[in-house]
Amino acid sequence: MKDRSLVQIALYAAIFAMLGLLPRFDLPFAGGVPITAQSMGAMLAGVMLGAWRGALAIVLLLFVVALGAPLLAGGRGGLGVFFSPSVGFIFGWIAVAFVAGWIMQALRTAPVFPSALVAAVIGGILVMYAFGIAGMSLVGGLAPLDAAKACLIFIPGDTIKAVLVALIAQTVARGMPEALLSRNA
Amino acid sequence: MISLYLPGRTWLHRMPAGWKLLALALVSLAITPVDSVAVMTGLVVAVLALYASLGRAALAQIALLRPLWMLFVILLALHWWSGDVLFGVLVVLRIVAMVLLANAVTMTTRMDAMMDAVEPLLMPLRLFGVAPRRVALAVAMMIRLIPLLFALWEALNESYRARSGRRGGWRLLAPFCIQTLRLSHNTAEALAARGGAPRGGHR
């Protein structure tokens, strides 16, 4: 692994942390659904860095959170978060980044915006909810179907985030193409 | 440094970090098969007593549960709906006990002590040519980058406001990403100029 990759991994872990510490975004069309920007960080890491580096960025973040830094949305952190019902989402972020990055690499010849959108939707919604629902039903003792119902309210927000991630990827591809590592690895 | 660590000199502070982590792992394994509300209530009371023994500042940290109450309500409602409220109560008690217990470890262990305690667990990474010190470097870099990123965001927000009179919000994300990538490029060059990050193999 090159030094540059190491820095990029640290950078995306830091961006992920920062998205959780930012005040909520003023998205006008979200319809009152609670939106934290944080889960965007996982899609972003995958889409920008590719599968392995993206997943490692999330692993690094979770490692620092476990060491005791309050870097998750709302200032949560420490070992406690790994015992809460949202633990499925937390570990799911690793898979989100990996899958999003992998799709981005697989579609490397396609235009940036649509492939980033596909990567963000499949990774950030399908994969994330598969993990999140599994976590809710394991820790919360719910039937998977009930757990799925409890998660539904977040879907509109996550769709918006996937679109944002695709827009960012396209802007970066235009402004600084060599930075889209998932495309030129 | 940002951390959930609570400075103090209690008995739990003095216990080695490795032991605390081991105890936490053992308790979490031991209570998984427990399905008695009475036993679980006893555990929650025991954890609360543990907090009380750590003093007033520790007790105030129980407020960390506040972001979870909405989830507890949803969990109880779903369990009530499927006809087993008692099981719902058990689940909520288990989550409360484990989250509080895990936080007790975090709050009484400094981050560097925690890092030292888990370093032996990173040793297998050497097999893949990753030096544990590289991990430590990545952790340090990430923690240092967070305040830098905030400053960068503030600067972008200020200039957007100067141009438009409004807050930038999500519009800043793309320029922000490009700026941070430039920052990471410079960091990587600075790192290379100083001989690069530690490699795998011997220290």
From TrEMBL, chain A:
Membrane topology, record value: Multi-pass membrane protein
- Keyword Cell membrane present in the record's keywords: the answer is yes
Could you tell me the superkingdom of the organism this chain comes from?
A: Bacteria
Localisation per UniProt entry: Cell membrane
Which residue spans traverse the membrane? 6-22, 55-74, 81-104, 116-139, 151-173
On whether Transmembrane is a keyword of this UniProt record, the answer is: yes
Alphabetic keyword roster: Cell membrane, Membrane, Transmembrane, Transmembrane helix, Transport
Q: Tell me the protein family, please.
A: Belongs to the BioY family.
PANTHER family cross-referenced by the UniProt entry: BIOTIN TRANSPORTER BIOY, BIOTIN TRANSPORTER BIOY-RELATED
Tell me the protein's name: Biotin transporter
Please report the organism this UniProt entry assigns to the protein.
Ancylobacter koreensis
From TrEMBL, chain B:
Q: Which residues cross the membrane?
A: 21-52, 58-78, 85-105, 135-156
Please indicate if the UniProt record lists Signal as a keyword.
no
Q: Which Pfam families match?
A: CbiQ
Name the keywords, alphabetized. Answer: Membrane, Transmembrane, Transmembrane helix
Q: Which superkingdom does the taxonomy of this entry point to?
A: Bacteria
Q: Topology in the membrane?
A: Multi-pass membrane protein
Predominant subcellular localization, coarse grouping:
membrane
Q: Does the keyword Transmembrane helix apply?
A: yes
Record family assignment: Belongs to the CbiQ family.
- Identify this protein by name: Energy-coupling factor transporter transmembrane protein EcfT
Q: What broad taxonomic lineage does this protein's source fall under?
A: Bacteria, Pseudomonadati, Pseudomonadota, Alphaproteobacteria, Hyphomicrobiales
